[in-house]
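Exercise 7.
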Amino acid sequence: MTESPTSAQPTASRPVVPAVVVLAQLLQKLDSEPLQASAEQYRSLVKRLETELRRLPASPWLDGVLRRFPAAAEVYENARYDMAGLCRAPLEQATEAEIRARELLTAVAKRAKPVAGVD
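Solution. The predicted structure, written as tokens, is:
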């Protein structure tokens, strides 16, 4: 039995694109052009993307998808909020960034000139 050209089997000219990538692309487009969909369509898309993201384990591939599509990364962070807050970076990386930020703010505060009348 031969397959029809509309079958979902990958071919050299038509590779299968994971659903999460297609949904992430669409959400990114809608985020840049918000009047292209109704609120209900937008919510439905986000819900479908969240479902797909929850099915996937953390991996370098998924991280690449989320870096490429910031709107999808936001959905991912919100879906994983109970586990990691709004942060996809490993805890050690996040802690180091916070320490460097505090050090920088302390150094800037020491160099700042006091403003008259401000305590």
